[in-house]
Amino acid sequence: MDQSVMGRIKELQKTDVMSKEQKEAVKSEIINIVKNSSVDDVREMLGNNAKVHAIVIQKGGVGKSTASSDICYTLASMGFDVLGIDSDPQASFSMLSNVDTEDDSMYGLQDVYYAHFDAMANGNLSAFGIKDIEKAIIRPTYRKPARSENNRWVEKDFEFGYDLIPANIDLASCDFQLGKKGYIYSLYIIMNTLLKNRHYDFVIIDCLPGLNAISYAAITAAYSGGCIVPINLEPMTVKGAKNLIESTSEIQHLLWENSRILHKGILGIIKNQYSPRLTVQREYDEVVKELFPISTFNNTIPNKSVCDKAHALGRAFAEYDKKTGEIIKEICYEIIAEDIRRDAETEPLYVDEFGTEVWEKYN
Questions:
Q1: Measuring CA to CA, which residue among 276, 291, 230, 288 is closest to residue 67?
Q2: 119 compared with 298, residue with greater pLDDT
Q3: How far apart are alpha carbons 24 and 13 in whole angstroms?
Q4: Counting Cβ atoms within 10 Å, is residue 279 exposed (0-12), middle (13-18) or buried (19+)?
Q5: CA-to-CA distance for 128 and 117, rounded, in angstroms?
Q6: Which residue has the higher pLDDT, 163 or 25?
Q7: What would the pLDDT profile of 210-238 be if each residue is shown by its tens digit?
Q8: Cα–Cα distances in Å, from 70 out to 100, 160, 224, 275?
């Protein structure tokens, strides 16, 4: 790539303390550079390393799985190598990817965990390897009408474009094991084993709605990119985001102090199912901006009934609705820009303090 461009990227990666306005200006410049660069150039800007992100918040019904599916689909359509991981026993991400989660023969994340647990219990980690992970990786597809060779409309299969490690309800039984001392690193070890043997630019982990050992393992594994938090602008979700940010900061402290693992913390907040016409949502939008010392993405996922139609047809929201697809693409540019901006960090950026007065004002 043009070395002057790479030089400018390195200037923008300086980790001096910046105001929100300065961060936004830097992010905007990086987005413009990324939009005018090839996929290989963007990989170079990212140091040719995979960025692992956890899509997480402890409240259900805020669109984590939909966001995971759409981000994976869109990053893949942009030309990146993408892996999705379903880390939720409800398996919503797997179902959105048209995986039969009721199939007893399905090999998923729960089975990868079991293989790793067995190796740890036997004191023989070398018994766990890439083959135990690759068995779980599938290439999901969806069906939609398309023109046939004789110019008639027929149903055809298309790939979503990303790889997936699915899950089913059996994943819930892993929570007890992951709560044992040292086991919280299990998905971190699994990810490192995988990425040493297969290339991915981005790994997106869809987390369950709650903060338990399964969630903590997923957050720990997402150290290289950090967490992305989808929220609805209503009271319970905002409170859930506060607790998540505090928990993530604690994990950052523990990883850095115990293992010198640099965890990126929270990458940003995505406002999901957002309608600026609703007064209550506009009000809580201001609360989020004032309360959280975390970047809020400029692009928001709209509240559309067409999303349910896409899910009913087994298609990604971003693929089914082109306007939404463009919004998700802009969100992906924001994710990539934040990944690039923060890639040169050498120490964790903790978020330990909140605006107490603001919090009490709204609660």
A1: 230
A2: 119
A3: 13
A4: exposed
A5: 9
A6: 163
A7: 889 999 999 999 999 999 988 876 666 66
A8: 19, 10, 21, 19
Name the token pair of 290: 């004032």
Q: Do 340 and 30 meet the contact criterion of CB atoms below 8 Å apart? A: yes
Q: Which of 155, 193, 168 is nearest to 101 (CA)?
A: 168
Q: At which residue do the structure tokens 């140091």 appear?
A: 47
Helix, strand, coil percentages in the chain from 3-state DSSP, rounded to 5 = 50, 15, 35
Per-residue pLDDT reduced to its tens digit, 179-191? 998 899 999 999 9
Number of H helices, E strands in the chain: 16, 8
Q: What is the pLDDT of residue 293?
A: 64
Task: Report which DSSP code applies to 165.
Answer: E
Non-local CB neighbours of 236 within 8 Å, separated by 6+ positions: 59
Q: How large is the angle between the packed helices 3-12 and 20-35, nearest 10 degrees? A: 160
Give me the residues paired with residue 153 across strands. 147
Q: 223 CB contacts (<8 Å, ≥6 apart)?
A: 52, 188, 255, 261, 262, 263, 264
> 226 to each of 79, 179, 218, how far by Cα in Å?
22, 21, 10
Q: Which of 191-200, 296-305, 312-321, 326-335 has the lowest mean pLDDT?
A: 296-305
Domains and CATH numbers, the chain: 49-362 (3.40.50.300)
Question: Is the pLDDT confidence value at 337 over 90?
Answer: yes
Task: Report whether 307 contacts 66 (CB < 8 A).
Answer: yes
| Integer Cα distance of 314 and 60 in angstroms | 21
Scan for tokens 């300086």, then name that residue.
Answer: 14
Inter-residue contact 207 to 88 (CB < 8 Å)? yes
b/e burial code for range 49-81 (CB count within 10 A of at least 16 → b):
ebbbbbbbbbbbebbbbbbbbbbbbbbbbbebb
Amino acid at 133: I
Tell me the residue length of the chain.
363
Residues contacting residue 11 through CB under 8 Å, at least 6 positions apart: none
